[in-house]
Write a structure and sequence with these properties.
Blueprint: H1 3-10, H2 14-19, E1 23-28, E2 32-38, E3 49-55, E4 66-67, E5 72-78, E6 80-85, E7 88-93, E8 97-100, E9 108-111, E10 118-124, E11 130-134, E12 139-144, E13 147-151
Antiparallel strand pairs: 1-2, 2-3, 3-10, 4-11, 5-8, 5-10, 6-7, 6-9, 11-12, 12-13
Keywords: Metal-binding
Pfam families: Cupin_2
InterPro entries: Cupin_2 (IPR013096), GPI/OXD (IPR051610), RmlC-like_jellyroll (IPR014710), RmlC_Cupin_sf (IPR011051)
Length: about 160
Amino acid sequence: MDAKELRQRLIRNIDEQLTGPAAERQMRPPRYESLFASLSGGTVARQLGAGVDMVPPGKQSCPYHLHHSQEEMFVILEGRGTLRVAGELLPVRAGDVIFIPAGPEYPHQLINTSDAMLKYMSISTQQKPEICEYPDSGKVQAWAAGVKVVQRPADALDYWDGEP
């Protein structure tokens, strides 16, 4: 394997990912907006996932949620904001590293409460299957290889539904 191929398998540049074809703008006005790029996609990483988000002032990148399997870490690269976690609001700023274990004790969400861009890297352990809960909306999401389901527990089918 030559150096070029090795680099493609092992190294990603945050700025290149955010300005390249891997970048994806995610929006749901009026609250949610972010420019997201995967960092680990296409690499040889198997147990760690990484991405980078840029969140405009006054916006959030995703809903308040918790994971049952995956542990996450966030590194604030630029700007300031608020970590909504476990029912509290904690200020965060460039240089902060946030650790969120799996489980119901630490639902979390990053909010850009400043007047400048908030840029952060997220790292997760990528366990699958995974179940994610959204306390504000009462939704539950479950995913594994080839399957993804989002619903509210009240809408769940009976175990025997549709069986002969």
